[in-house]
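FORM 12-B: Structure-to-Sequence Request
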């Protein structure tokens, strides 16, 4: 029996592609991060950032926390902050799906919506202003080493354990880049030949959870040397593959997971053999008010 809902974060399942992967010499495994209690891979980073911050004394129950988010990190922070009795304001673009906004509020967080025209960059600017002028404390997932260290502690070791050390390629969409940075660091320590593949959108494509950041907003935790290859996917590819994941593999996920899967399948077609692990970063139910599954 778990003592807390937070004990259920991590140890998510790996399932093999039964239909989408057509290369018989390659095993494609999906890591189902939607099985985390907050519904996404971001539960891992949020837990480590909050627990580590509390342990260091960076903030406490009297602090006013703030964080800009495109969605999943916000839900995870709202859930975990609520569990610790912390005051948190989450800032996100106004075109975020209502499921995300309502979930954060259900967990007790204050949610501030910024103009869709300036996207997540505008939300980040708003949060930075509150830190400078109102004394808020930012979690700062984009520059917080506890973000990537969460995956060094958990995601990487789980993949190594569950593939019995046989993983050859790891594929992950890149947003804050915490998942790919931490997992790469661990897997490369175990076997430097494991190939780390990042996924970004093509120019002009808008895929929630995947970004090609302008230089001024590039996450400070990102280290390009930890990524062996970057594959770009179009918005259309990501949407189509999210739908195919649901219909053909019975894996219900968001658009960023569709993008990662499209890249993983493209990679699989180029290999003579291998074991690919691709991150399915969240669940599809938080996109039902969008046109993703229309």
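FORM 12-B RESPONSE
SEQUENCE OUT:
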């Amino acid at each position: 029996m778990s003592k807390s809902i937070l004990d259920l974060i991590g140890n998510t399942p790996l399932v093999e592609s039964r239909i989408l992967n057509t290369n018989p010499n390659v095993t494609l495994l999906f890591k189902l991060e939607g099985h985390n209690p907050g519904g996404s891979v971001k539960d891992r980073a949020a837990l480590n950032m909050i627990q580590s911050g509390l342990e260091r004394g960076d903030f406490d129950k009297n602090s006013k926390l703030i964080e800009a988010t495109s969605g999943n990190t916000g839900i995870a922070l709202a859930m975990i902050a609520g569990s610790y009795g912390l005051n948190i304001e989450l800032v996100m673009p106004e075109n975020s799906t209502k499921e995300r906004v309502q979930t954060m509020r259900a967990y007790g967080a204050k949610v501030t919506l910024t103009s869709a025209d300036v996207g997540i960059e505008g939300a980040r600017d708003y949060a930075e202003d509150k830190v400078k002028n109102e004394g808020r404390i930012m979690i700062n997932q984009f520059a917080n080493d506890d973000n990537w260290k969460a995956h060094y502690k958990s995601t990487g070791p789980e993949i190594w354990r569950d593939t019995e050390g046989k993983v050859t390629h790891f594929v992950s969409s890149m947003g804050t880049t915490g998942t790919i940075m931490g997992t790469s660091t661990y897997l490369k320590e175990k076997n430097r030949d494991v190939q780390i593949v990042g996924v970004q959108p093509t120019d002009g494509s808008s895929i929630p959870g995947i970004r090609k950041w302008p230089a001024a907003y590039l996450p400070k935790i990102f280290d390009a040397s930890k990524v062996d290859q970057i594959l770009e996917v179009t918005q259309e590819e990501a949407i189509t593959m999210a739908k195919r994941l649901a219909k053909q593999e019975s894996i219900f996920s968001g658009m960023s997971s569709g993008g990662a899967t499209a890249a993983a399948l493209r990679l699989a077609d180029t290999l003579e053999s291998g074991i690919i692990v691709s991150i399915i970063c969240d669940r599809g139910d938080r996109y039902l008010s969008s046109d993703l599954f229309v």
